[in-house]
Amino acid sequence: MQRLPYHQIISTTGIRKLRGSIVPLLLTSLLTLAAFGPANAAHKVKLKPGAKSKQCLECHEDQKKAFSRRSTHPLKKPDECTGCHDPHTSNQKKLLVEDVQTLCNRCHADIVPEKAVSRHKVVVEGNCSKCHDAHGSNNRRLLNKDGNALCIECHSEMGTRLAKVKFPHKPLTEGKGCLSCHTPHASTKETALLKNEASALCTACHKTNRPIFARRHLNYKVGTSNCNSCHDPHGSDKRDILYDTVHAPVAEKSCQKCHNSPTSANALDVKQKGKALCLQCHKPMIDEMYLKKQVHWPLADETACLHCHNPHGSKTPKLISGSQAKVCGQCHADTVELQNVSIANPQNKHLCEPVRKGTCSSCHSPHSADNFLLMRKENISVNVCGECHEWETHSTHPIGEKIVDQRNKNLTVECLSCHVGCGTGNKPAMLPFDTTYELCIQCHVERKR
Amino acid sequence: MSNESGELGVKIPSHKLFILGTMLLATAWAQLSASAAEKVRFRHALSLYADDQGIGFQQPQGVACTQNSVMVVADTGNDRLLRYTLSDYESKPQVQVLKTPLTIYPKKIHVGRQGEIYLLDAKAGRIVHLSADGQSLGFIKPVGMPAPARIEAPSFAVDPNGRLYFLDVLSRRVLVCNDRGQYLRQIQFPETYGWISDIAVSDREEIFLVDSVNAQVFAARTADAPFTALSQSLEQYMRFPTSLAIDQRGRLYLNDRNGSKIVILSADGAYVGRLSAQGWRDGLLNHPSQLCVNERGDLIVADTSNNRVQIFYELK
Fold it and tell me: Which pLDDT score, from 0 to 100, does residue A80 have?
């Protein structure tokens, strides 16, 4: 570029002439300053040798052990504690430069794929340290514990079950354990963090072309069926890891009671649809249901019994396809949510047992009833609440047929005059009010302050 | 927005309205005007507790309104129907008790133009047809419809021409029949839904369905139209709707059985407001069931767990 004398640069005409060359020059200078200026300034701070790591370990001796473990976090290699921690101040715990999730995601952003079908709760919550030690571990992948022991820390019910079960599923107790079927962070293919759909996972080991497979399944072609419909994938007390509760035709290997013959074109189709199929064996029970005044309407549609029951087997009694909270919550999510909020409310130390345990059937009849809201019995206070709260027969606020509710002349005072049966969320003791005072002055108006 | 006296009002503060209006003027002025203009206020008028002999209601689940200030109550727990004539809410209403072997555990009811009563016998899949004074006019069962011949109907509706609409959950369809039950046409339920609990038909023969699980309303506006979503899920406003009523202006009223309130939607399915709350005093509700709106625009609610029927009038 041609070098110009100073006077030429400041003259108006000169600026016009130079516009094409000086503006890029200025911009380049500014950008250079922006990029290197502060960095240079930082580098000029005279840090003691090892200030970014070794010096830290002089005080944080406990971390020395972590760094001497079999596998260490790669960040440790260049001795850079300051990669994750701010040596001076931070708004985060442990002087981290960012919250754990953001910090880990700097390098591990692909842990949860964008199109994940299921995500591990701890990953979503950013609790990476629940499973990993960020500094070092004697286990692979910086895991806090090895194998199933790590999973069982949270999934303790599964751990207890596996310890007791007669026939554990081998992949769970050998080799990769839980990770034989589940992926630890997120799955793009299936729910429950499964690596693949159930049949694909199972048939990877249980070859469907082997004669024994066909024989055990009575020649039904179940290679693409949901194996979890009959088998408990973790293990059970029954041979062939069938569910602890199995439908009688499954136990008797009488699949043809419900399904077409294995040689027919649509062998796996059921012989009749909906309730008609169940009526073959359960007619007396279903007839009795229909004698009641109120029928639970899901019984009436094509899905009928299968709204709530698994036709093959289940972990829960009566072939219910899950816990009551889960099954009832399919439709009554509003009530189950209320129940969950009530459980979480620290004021509810003595929450009604069926609400705490989510056993809806303690009070409601799931099929039909002669009472509104499918209550199992008439006169709820005595016949339903009184089953557990027997003390109410001798020591309680006046209740019963003779005590008229001051707020409504058509009601008598009952348990449900003050409490709401399914829970009241953030309010205490299943009361519909925030305080006992608010409740009592409903009737005892003279006490109102 | 509701309060304990059962009064409801929806009002957008003027400064917010101004900001909103400025922002959306170019694109959605008409829509904003419509929602701002919709202002509804109801007040509790009357609670009915008993017949003229003082026999109290037992968990009434049904109410039906008709012209000439006539209202029929299904006093479910007492196995009877009560026909009320309410000229105004100041004077004592005339009551006629209708108790027959046909009125066992009555729940869903409707009243025709001539005052005749339709009572659903859900388990038998038929309607009990009664005259205005409770005499049996026979049963109406849907006939001539496509297979299956059996229906499972937890609810039904009657239009001003006497046509009957059966909510057949077994075959996931609405069966439209003439006043004798002869099949006319069917409309399949929407493709995805949680559980359809109730049906309502407007004077213009538009059909509405309520999905309890998703707290959503579907509509079939014309004879050939399929059901499409009229409203978004109303879960933020209510818990579990099981009954639907429509007034002469096309406004929709939904009971919130578990949340003990009433939700009102405009004719286009937009949320207008909520009425009442859970409680025992007059104006409050406890597990409301069937609703109806009479010719005066008054809202009548079977307040089931409070053993009464409540009437709310609109503040003009």
Answer: 77
**What does the mean pLDDT of chain B come to?**
88
With a cut of 50, which residues of chain A have pLDDT below it?
1-18, 33-42, 78
For an interface test with B, which of A372, A375, A417, A439 has the most B Cβ atoms less than 10 Å from its Cβ? A372
**CB hemisphere CA count around A372 (13 angstroms):** 26
Mark residue B212 as left, alpha or beta (left: phi above 0; alpha: psi -120 to 50; beta: remaining): alpha
Task: Name the 3-class secondary structure at A347.
Answer: coil
Q: Taking CB atoms and an 8 Å limit, are B123 and A295 in contact across chains? A: yes
By Cβ distance, the residue of A300, A334, A410 closest to B240 is A334
Q: What ipTM goes with this model?
A: 0.86
Q: Give the CA angle between residues A189, A193, A196 to the nearest 5°.
A: 40
Chain B partners within 8 Å of A332 (Cβ): 240, 258
d(Cα A380, Cα A424) in Å, to the nearest integer?
18
- Which pLDDT does position A21 carry in this prediction? 52
pLDDT band (50, 70, 90) for residue B170: very high
Contacts of residue A182, Cβ cutoff 8 Å, sequence gap at least 6: A192, A193, A194, A195
Mutate to test the interface with A, among B236, B239, B310 (most CBs of A within 10 A): B239
Evaluate whether B2 touches B276 at the Cβ level (below 8 Å).
yes
Chain B hits for A290, CB-CB cut-off 8 Å, are: 123
Q: How many C-beta atoms surround the C-beta of residue B306 within 10 A?
A: 29
Portion of chain A with pLDDT greater than 70, in percent: 88
**Which helix or strand (DSSP H or E) is residue A7 part of?**
helix A6-10
CA distances from A117 to A97, A110, A113, A114, A321 (A): 31, 15, 9, 9, 22
What pLDDT digit, counting tens, does each position of A189-233 carry? 999 999 999 999 999 999 999 999 999 999 999 999 999 999 999
Specify the higher pLDDT residue, A46 or B162: B162
A440 touches B at CB < 8 Å: no
CB B110 within 8 A of CB B156: yes
B169/A405 CB distance under 8 A: no
| Contact at CB, B194 and A331, closer than 8 angstroms | yes
Nearest alpha-carbon partner for A418 in A394, A446, A444: A444
pLDDT of res. A2:
43
Q: SS3 string of chain B? A: CECCCCCECCCCCHHHHHHHHHHHHHHHHHHHHHHHHCCCCEEEEEEECECCCCCECCCCCEEEECCCCEEEEEEHHHCEEEEEECCCCCCCCEEEEECCCCCCCCCCEEECCCCCEEEEEHHHCEEEEECCCCCEEEEECCECCCCCCCCCCCEEEECCCCCEEEEECCCCEEEEECCCCEEEEEEECCCCCCCEEEEEECCCCCEEEEECCCCEEEEECCCCCCCEECCCCCCCCCCCCCCEEECCCCCEEEEECCCCEEEEECCCCCEEEEECCECCCCCCECCEEEEEECCCCCEEEEEHHHCEEEEEEECC
CB within 8 Å of chain B, chain A residues 277-296: 290, 293, 295
CA separation for the pair B71, B310 (Å, rounded):
12
pLDDT, tens only, B43-69: 999 999 999 999 999 999 999 998 778
Say if residue B20 is exposed, middle or buried (CB neighbours under 10 Å; 0-12, 13-18, 19+).
middle
To the question of pTM greater than 0.90 for the whole model, the response is no
Question: Would the CB atoms of A410 and B169 count as touching at under 8 Å?
Answer: no
Tell me if A82 sits within 8 A of A52, measured CB to CB: yes
**Cis omega before residue B154 (within 30°)?**
no
**Helix ranges restricted to H, A44-79:** 54-59, 62-67
